[in-house]
Design brief:
alpha/beta, eight-stranded mixed β-sheet, two-stranded parallel sheet, globular
């Protein structure tokens, strides 16, 4: 597995994939590779212009690519539900859902349309709701996979159930770390619940290490002394967006990955390198906290996996 590359992706002809946040960065590189392997790829994002440019760029590389763009704002539960309805109206099943979209360390506290702290709402709660809405279509696929993007930041994360929305105290990085820990906990809990309820999902988490994307370049620390020093060190501690997408692609396509697994780069501190099993911190393995987060998420979003599964 340590020398795994996009050349190892099997034919994905006939498979349908949805990727959130796919108009740039990691999501774009993931879409490019899946389209190149023959998958039917649905890019989602908040900018129609960026979506169309991404499709044009992918089709320039792969003229026969089966690819489309759909608007989806993870910071709006109405947008999430609307996308799921549109997708279900035009597709019989979904083979692969890649929950990739995210925002990072917003300097000031912001809220989603539904009143959630923006990072928790976009990075986690929107993906929780999206996965639930798409569960019936995932279950119709032969071997459905859900890939959830976490981060090295989960290692410093904690779920603050007493101030989940950071209303009493907001710190940009603390909120980001919480959201990425939540994504990893969700991925692990989704696999456990799928096994218990026979949903047939393979839920797998991944992280890109330190990948050079717009999420970093346009982040809150841009053009500070710390940021400039980091730029000087980038060649030694970071990798390209295409390389950063490899753990996601491994999780999405390889027969060797484990359901309920977590994958990232294999280099120092998992900052860069070939994709391999990644370290999961103890707080992500906390069964009681995972179950509580799942129940809180269902209450906050008004979306229940069990109810959707039962109605399908």
């Amino acid at each position: 597995m340590t020398d795994w590359t996009t050349a190892d992706i099997p034919s994905l002809s006939g498979k349908t994939a949805v990727i959130t946040g796919a108009t740039g960065g990691l999501g774009y590189e993931t879409a490019l590779a899946l389209a190149g392997a023959g998958a039917i790829v649905i890019l989602t994002g908040r900018s129609d212009a960026k979506g169309l440019r991404a499709i044009e760029a992918i089709c320039n590389r792969f003229p026969d690519a089966l690819i489309a763009y759909e608007p989806l704002d993870l910071a709006s539960l109405a947008s999430v539900a609307d996308f799921a309805r549109r997708f279900a109206a035009s597709h019989e099943q979904l083979d692969l859902l890649i929950n990739n979209a995210g925002v990072m360390a917003l300097p000031r506290r912001q809220e989603t349309t539904d009143g959630f702290e923006m990072q928790l709402g976009t990075n986690y709660l929107g993906h929780y709701a999206l996965t639930a809405h798409l569960l019936p279509l995932l279950r119709r696929a032969k071997v459905p996979r859900v890939v959830n993007l976490s981060s090295l930041a989960h290692r410093s994360g904690a779920i603050n159930f007493d101030d989940l929305q950071s209303k009493r105290s907001y710190r940009p990085w603390r909120a980001y770390c919480q959201s990425k820990l939540a994504m990893l906990m969700f991925s692990l809990e989704l696999q456990r619940r799928s096994d218990a309820a026979s949903w047939g999902l393979r839920s797998i988490a991944a992280h890109p290490g330190y990948a050079r994307t717009d999420l970093i370049a346009n982040g809150p620390g841009a053009d500070t002394l710390q940021w400039r020093v980091g730029r000087l060190l980038q060649p030694f501690i970071s990798q390209s967006a295409a390389e950063g997408a490899l753990p996601t692609l491994l999780a999405a396509t390889s027969a060797a990955v484990e359901a309920g697994g977590y994958y990232g780069p294999n280099g120092f501190y998992e900052l860069k390198g070939a994709p391999a099993p990644a370290k999961i911190m103890p707080q992500a393995k906390d069964f009681a906290a995972r179950a509580r987060l799942w129940d809180v998420s269902a209450t906050l979003t008004g979306v229940s996996f069990n109810e959707i599964a039962a109605a399908a």
